[in-house]
Amino acid sequence: MNAIEVEHISKVYGSRRVLDDISFIVKQESIHGFLGPNGAGKTTTMRIITELAKSSSGTVDIFSNGQKIHKTKLYQHIGFLLEEPPLYKDMTVLEYIRFVAKLRKIPQADIQNCIDYAIDALDLSAVVNRSIENLSKGYKQRVGIAQAIVHRPKILILDEPTVGLDPHSVKEMRNLILNLKKEHTILISSHLLHEMSLICDDITIISSGTILKTGSMASLKKDLANKQEIHLVFKKVNETFYTELKQLELFDSINISDCDEGVLVVLKPKDTGDYRNLLIKKSVELDVELLEISKKEFSLEDLFLEVTESHD
């Protein structure tokens, strides 16, 4: 089942088209990564989904257990963290989360359980009585997420939750977000592409207001695996070696060029097989001096750069 369906959304400010007919879905009980360079339209899209901004055209539908949620009730079902958390820094963590719980009009009988849930989910018990202004950047981000889930929404939308964090805090945030998946469908934007590959079930790549790619992480990883290359460096090669490579019928392309060490041969296999041992054996048989062999794997960063640069 889907939790969010974005269909043909456009957003125009004067003569500037910020979003251009974008469509994608977020599946229920998943983590969906929303990736794109600065100014791509990520935040605008998220603000439209949460009804903080209006689209110029198109529709956004939100679902809970297969039932479409009326726009007047979105506030109950969505939690949203802006890139900069809306924190009252003179409050303690507990005071602030309690304040937000009251703003959310959580029934009095449920407030304490909801507060406890938010504190436990973001591992804030050690700082619950500390003033927010004295917290580290990482803990401030946690408090920002805690306020977004205090009413236990079905859908959680996080805009760059790891921006400005050190590597240790990024790792901690990754684990916290993975745990939140147990209770929430999560739509998350980020520039940390490697982190997205570790936590997301699906991703959507946007550039200049246009969706360039969307799909499951599993299918994207399969696509990346199919893009692998084998690089070989020889002192020199002969026509016989090139002919033998073609006769193997294992490679979509064979590119040969000069390099500092001698000759570089780049092979693109037709499948995900690792043919390095076979190529080493063939080099020995044909008496060509192989200096180096390596397998180039393509990452999410490579895919991101490929689709955004080709779009530009």
Q: How much is the average pLDDT? A: 91
Q: Which value, in Å, is the CA radius of gyration?
A: 25 Å
CATH topology of the largest domain: Rossmann fold
Strand order of the largest sheet: 6-7-8-3-9-10
Low-confidence stretches: none
Fraction of residues in β-strands = 25-35%
Distance between the termini: 34 Å
Helical content stands at 25-40%
Number of domains: 2
Shape: elongated
What structural class should be given to the helix and strand makeup? alpha/beta
Count the DSSP helices: 11
Number of strand segments: 14
User: What profile does the largest beta sheet have?
Assistant: 6 strands, mixed
Query: Topology as H/E string?
Result: EEEHEEHEHHHEHEHEEHEHEEHEH
CATH superfamily of the largest domain: P-loop containing nucleotide triphosphate hydrolases
Main attributes of the structure:
312 residues; Alpha-Beta Plaits; six-stranded mixed β-sheet; four-stranded antiparallel β-sheet; 31% strand
Describe this structure in words.
- By secondary structure, the protein is α/β, with parallel strands linked by helices.
- The protein has 2 domains: 2-223, 3-Layer(aba) Sandwich (Rossmann fold), CATH 3.40.50; 229-296, Alpha-Beta Plaits, CATH 3.30.70.
- It contains 11 helices and 14 strands.
- The chain has helices spanning 42-49, 74-77, 93-103, 108-121, 137-149, 167-180, 193-199, 217-225, 239-248, 276-285, 300-311, and strands at residues 2-13, 16-27, 31-35, 57-64, 67-68, 78-81, 155-159, 185-189, 202-207, 210-216, 229-234, 251-259, 262-269, 290-296.
- The protein has a 6-stranded mixed β-sheet, with helices on both faces. Strands 2-1-4-5 form a 4-stranded antiparallel β-sheet, with helices on one face.
- A hairpin with a 2-residue loop joins strand 4 and strand 5 (67-68).
- Helix 3 crosses helix 4 (108-121) and helix 4 packs antiparallel against helix 5 (137-149).
- The longest helix is centred in the middle third of the chain and has 14 residues, at 108-121.
- The radius of gyration is 25 Å and the shape is elongated.
- The model has no long low-confidence stretch (mean pLDDT 91).
